[in-house]
Hints:
Blueprint: H1 2-28, H2 33-60, E1 62-67, E2 70-75
Antiparallel strand pairs: 1-2
Helix pairs in contact: 1-2
Amino acid sequence: MAEKKNDKAQNFEKALERLETLVGEMESGTLSLEKMMACFEEGTELVKFCNQKLNEVEKKIEILAKKGEEITTEPFEPGGDPS
């Protein structure tokens, strides 16, 4: 199970690293129009993948909350007050 989580994190890290490489290549100004479009298309897919992974993680985040003498977990609600 830990191996699967590590694979997902690694895939996210690799996707983010590739995206940074593509941005650098595109910003260099040395690419042909065709290569620029190919990089843009690949980058768009990588952004979609990374967003999907981040959304999955966000749904799994829980907040530790103290209720009386007990510490429990509550689902994370974006924009909510964690107190």
